[in-house]
């Protein structure tokens, strides 16, 4: 995808923590939206999924936010620290420019998210997290958190490499930001709290809708898509489906434990958004069925 170089005035970024610990303590739980968290962490990093699985209720807490941007470090310096961070900043600028007009047309207040790059571990408004958590969005501070080494993990362990795959990651997390701004995320957290038995099912819908929004962004920028991008995105969506990850970990696919959706569902969500380029298509994930 041929994205334009970011304009420093159009994005908000921050350099976060470094190291393998959890700054400020905490149990390493994150109550936030993510591309893929628990199963890939167990598969790639050998951790206990039960120790990483947070609840969305945590996102309503007022935990300290991530470390402040380093004094004298400019947006450009942060974005240019490596090739992956540059791609992420280019994507963030494009996402802001794509979605802000949509919010204006809908009469909904828009706020661009903060993008934090960290290494090893960090502390967000949703609590502490490690690189094993994967990229995530925290509704409490409207932040997208990325340890860019995750992209190497996707490529090496899951065969999901390429620039469009990395853009898909950013666009998915941005999809959770959209859900937060529209109030859907809060409604889902409330429903999960009132009916814990439906928590996983509701979370799957949240994740699939975020995939759909990622596709819509790509579809609205179809003129920038290069040959093979769509196939690359669908391959990535398939690689991170709950059923595929469970099977790679030597487990039997268990739909009741899914939190992000099957490979087929994630591919369908991304494809629907890309082909329609219409965010209304993504509303289907929360319509009465």
Automatic annotation (TrEMBL):
According to the UniProt record, one GO cellular component term is: membrane
Pfam families on file: Zn_peptidase
What domain of life does the native source organism fall in? Answer: Bacteria
Primary residence: membrane
Alphabetical keyword list: Membrane, Transmembrane, Transmembrane helix
Instruction: Report the locations given in the UniProt record.
Output: Membrane
Membrane topology term reads: Single-pass membrane protein
InterPro entries, sorted: Uncharacterised_pept_Zn_put (IPR007343)
Would the keyword Membrane turn up in this protein's UniProt record?
yes
Name this protein carries in UniProt:
Putative membrane protein
Q: What species is given as this protein's source? A: Pelagerythrobacter marensis
């Amino acid at each position: 995808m041929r994205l334009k170089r970011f304009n420093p005035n159009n994005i908000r970024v921050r350099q976060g923590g470094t190291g393998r610990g959890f700054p400020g303590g905490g149990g390493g739980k994150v109550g936030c939206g993510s591309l893929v968290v628990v199963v890939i962490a167990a598969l790639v990093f050998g951790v206990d999924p039960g120790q990483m699985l947070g609840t969305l209720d945590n996102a309503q807490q007022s935990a300290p936010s991530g470390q402040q941007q380093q004094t004298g470090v400019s947006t450009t310096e942060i974005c240019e620290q490596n090739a992956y961070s540059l791609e992420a900043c280019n994507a963030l600028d494009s996402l802001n420019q794509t979605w802000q007009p949509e919010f204006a047309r809908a009469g909904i207040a828009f706020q661009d998210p903060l993008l934090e790059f960290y290494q090893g571990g960090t502390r967000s408004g949703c609590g502490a997290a490690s690189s094993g958590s994967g990229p995530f969005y925290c509704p409490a501070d409207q932040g997208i958190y990325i340890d860019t080494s995750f992209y190497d993990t996707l490529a090496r362990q899951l065969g999901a490499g390429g620039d469009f795959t990395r853009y898909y990651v950013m666009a998915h997390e941005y999809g959770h930001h959209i859900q937060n701004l529209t109030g859907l995320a809060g409604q889902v957290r409330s429903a999960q709290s009132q009916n814990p038995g439906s928590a996983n099912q509701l979370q799957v819908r949240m994740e699939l809708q975020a995939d759909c929004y990622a596709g819509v962004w790509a579809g609205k920028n179809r003129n920038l898509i290069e040959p093979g991008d769509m196939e690359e995105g669908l391959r990535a969506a398939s690689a991170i489906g709950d059923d595929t990850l469970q099977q790679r970990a030597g487990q039997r696919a268990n739909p009741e434990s899914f939190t992000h959706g099957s490979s087929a569902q994630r591919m369908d969500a991304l494809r629907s958004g890309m082909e329609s380029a219409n965010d209304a298509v993504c509303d289907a994930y929360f319509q009465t069925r």
